[in-house]
Amino acid sequence: MKIAVAMSGGVDSSVAVALLKKEGHDVIGLTMLVTPSEEAAVAAREVTQMLGIPHYLFDFEDVFTKQVISVFCHEYSLGRTPNPCINCNKLMKFGVLFDKAWDLGAEKIATGHYARLENGPSCNRIQLNKGIDHKRDQSYFLYKLNQEQLAGSLFPLGDLTKDKVREMAAEMELPVTKRKESREICFIPDNDYPSFVRKHLTAEYKSGLIVDTKGNILGKHNGVINYTIGQRKGLGVSSREPLYVVDIDNSNNTVIVGGKQEIYADEFVVKDLNWIAIEKIIDPMTVKTKIRYLHPEAESVITKLKDSTVHVKFSKPQMAITPGQAAVFYIGDTVVGGGTIDRVLH
What we know:
346 residues, alpha/beta, Rossmann fold, five-stranded parallel sheet
């Protein structure tokens, strides 16, 4: 089978391509250039040269800027907190890169994600499951993929732990073995989101009021772009008790703060839904919902609303439910589906 492997120049995708070659597949490596840095491309090319397989480099910087960076900046400027890696997977790695793979004659495209695929037991649908290494599981980032994208995908690392992958990379003497793993957003390596958004949008953000949940004015902010739900440090106001950002009212350019107990909520609405394990939701479902990547998913009931959104009700309040972030629904290790948090019902 001819398999194209999306190579980021890291340990995971490098081990994935080496494993598939070892299994006897006709393997090619594909790398996307999405930022001016060519470090990832150089690292990926070293691996493909060592393994003796073709390597193709595609300059997707313009489309990445339009479909990922600009969307991220727009949402962030409105006081929401999007996860750009999710859109990148849907539109870039499993989108435009998929198209290049098919043009090159590939039958499947593989990535280094820690996730697993299987045919659903009771319906004609492909299931997306967590990788066995739950600490490294990346199914959360893949919830937007449709059935066609999942059908064309392979995740060779889904049954492996991260420690085992690093061990295999060392045994195979891959040149990326000692390459450090980045946890930042690739296009914001210094993690300074507000500065990046300002530069990208070339916009000025007006100062406004900081108020408590009763509407009392506590101070002024220098732009809602500098605040996120759950933030505690750098609020610019003093109080006898620690204060947190409870909400951001972008329409009134206001930041609402409160005590720790006030950043907990148990109900919210999710839009822009994608279903994987089911075709659509009909009746209320009991699931476990993850509201950000590092959030331990919690028991909840999801109910369909009339406007193609779902209402989520946690059995216990959760901290800092944030509009713009992804909410992903699980039953056991299986991704039922997910969407974007639209509004929190305090």
